Write a sequence for this structure.
């Protein structure tokens, strides 16, 4: 199968300040491949390097060593991001715009013709159930509504690859279910989804393959059943085992 | 180009949704009330004095709005993290800088139009004299000068940590250039080497923003500056704005955004 997202020996080091700056490795030679049409879960505890990986993939930070490709194009080239959608962990949108204006702004960035942009905005606002609030400023939205605007903006260019950074973080159960439904719908449409999450139950439900990263190192990658293996009852137990977490004896 | 215009549109929308625009209207109203009393003493010298004061206020207000708007653009994008979904699209950092520049510059143009229209209407209705072309030329030259200031402020917003530092430093630099820039060559003659050469070098290196100040001509009704001189001044401003934007891009292009 074709790799739509690929990293090769990806290393990122953060350098401290001062005369003898401390060098902190955030990623240590990460090799990943995500194939067309799969839903790929990227798991790890806080500080494991998930967001750093996503930041490199989106060109926010340059890798210290190694390379990353989207659709076979080096991620340092902006054109690599033409066919992707990105949903950040928190809602980082211009709060002085309405949902409709925000989507129109991103549609213009992708160079969509006005008529096509109008149709897509209507369809997306219906999909995320924000049609009645389309002309309200985003700053008046609830957290769940803001996250749904995020989903709509991530889909404005009808992307072939979606990168979601903890998409359900901070959402109520209904909001989580909606996000899950949307991921499922995208999967059915043949889209590729790469998402980082702490919600292991959710990952188990929607993902085809998962990778587990800890301290910047890839610990395991494979199909969900393969990662759970015969020794664990679910993904959470497998995850804790793989990252080397020892259950504390009861106090 | 579409991306740059889209970014510029967001800057302009932000300006009027943040209510800055309405504050400007209030300021404009205060200025027009002052200007409206120009015939109060029936003394032409007082008319000139009040017009001079009004134009000075327009200069200060426009500079403040331009610097404050440009200084917060990129730091606010980073602080509110709106830069992340933006740069996750096929947008280069160079386009972000150009879009912000265009937006701030157009916004400053809108601000100037509002000021000058009120100024022209009020003074014109009192004096029954409408030197429209003089006002248009003064507005255009001031707007071109604000292009240089916008580019300089964007550079400052990348170099300095907080927008407030950028606003203060850029405002001091611009005020320094406007008040002292033209005298630096004379000052240089009174100093021995190497200070003489240093001051001369500064005199030639700084953008001479005072070239765009035709307030005295408007107040004293000295007529228009030749359009050829205006064209050359525009090229001069474009060179400096281009230089500042290039430096901004160099400073921003490799900056980590985590």
């Amino acid at each position: 199968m074709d790799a739509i997202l690929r990293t090769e020996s990806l290393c990122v080091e953060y350098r401290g300040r001062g005369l003898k700056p401390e060098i902190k490795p955030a990623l240590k030679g990460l090799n990943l491949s995500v194939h067309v049409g799969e839903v790929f879960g990227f798991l790890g505890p806080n500080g494991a390097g998930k967001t750093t990986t996503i930041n490199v993939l989106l060109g926010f930070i340059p890798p210290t060593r190694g390379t990353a490709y989207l659709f076979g194009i080096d991620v340092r080239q902006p054109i690599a991001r033409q066919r992707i959608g990105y949903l950040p962990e928190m809602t980082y949108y211009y709060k002085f715009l309405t949902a409709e204006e925000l989507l129109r702004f991103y549609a213009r960035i992708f160079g969509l013709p006005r008529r096509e942009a109008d149709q897509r905005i209507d369809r997306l606002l219906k999909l995320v159930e924000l049609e009645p609030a389309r002309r309200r400023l985003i700053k008046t939205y609830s957290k769940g509504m803001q996250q749904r605007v995020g989903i709509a903006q991530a889909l404005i260019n009808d992307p072939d690859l979606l990168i979601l950074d903890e998409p359900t973080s901070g959402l109520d159960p209904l909001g989580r279910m909606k996000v899950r439904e949307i991921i499922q719908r995208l999967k059915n449409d043949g889209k590729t989804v790469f998402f980082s999450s702490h919600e292991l139950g959710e990952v188990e439900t929607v993902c085809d393959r998962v990778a587990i990263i800890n301290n910047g190192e890839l610990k395991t990658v494979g199909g969900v059943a393969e990662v759970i293996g015969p020794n664990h009852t679910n993904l959470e137990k497998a995850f804790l085992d793989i990252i080397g977490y020892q259950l504390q004896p009861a106090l | 180009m579409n991306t740059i215009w889209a970014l510029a549109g967001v800057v302009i929308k932000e300006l009027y949704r943040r209510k800055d625009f309405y504050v400007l209207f209030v300021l404009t109203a205060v200025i027009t009330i002052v200007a409206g009393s120009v015939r109060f003493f029936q003394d032409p010298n007082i008319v000139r004095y009040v017009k001079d004061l009004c134009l000075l206020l327009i200069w200060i207000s426009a500079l403040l709005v331009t610097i404050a708007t440009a200084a917060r653009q990129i730091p606010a994008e980073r602080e509110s993290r709106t830069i992340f979904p933006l740069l996750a699209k096929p947008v280069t950092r160079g386009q972000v800088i150009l879009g912000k520049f265009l937006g701030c510059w157009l916004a400053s143009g809108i601000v100037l139009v509002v000021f000058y229209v009120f100024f022209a209407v009020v003074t014109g209705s009192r004096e029954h004299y409408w030197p429209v072309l003089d006002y248009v030329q003064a507005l255009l030259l001031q707007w071109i000068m604000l292009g240089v200031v916008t580019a300089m402020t964007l550079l400052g917003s990348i170099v300095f940590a907080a927008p407030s530092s950028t606003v203060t430093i850029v405002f001091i630099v611009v005020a320094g250039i406007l008040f002292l820039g033209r005298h630096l060559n004379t000052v240089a003659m009174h100093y021995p080497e190497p200070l003489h050469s240093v001051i001369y070098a500064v005199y030639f290196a700084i953008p001479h923003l005072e070239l765009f100040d035709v307030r005295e001509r408007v107040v004293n009704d000295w007529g228009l500056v030749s359009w050829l001189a205006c064209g050359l001044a525009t090229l001069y401003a474009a060179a400096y704005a281009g230089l500042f934007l290039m430096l901004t891009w160099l400073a921003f292009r490799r900056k980590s955004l985590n």
In short: Chain B touches chain A through 27 residues (CB under 8 Å). DSSP finds eleven helices and no strands in chain B. Residues 185 and 200 of chain B are 6 Å apart (CA to CA). The longest helix of chain B spans residues 44-79.
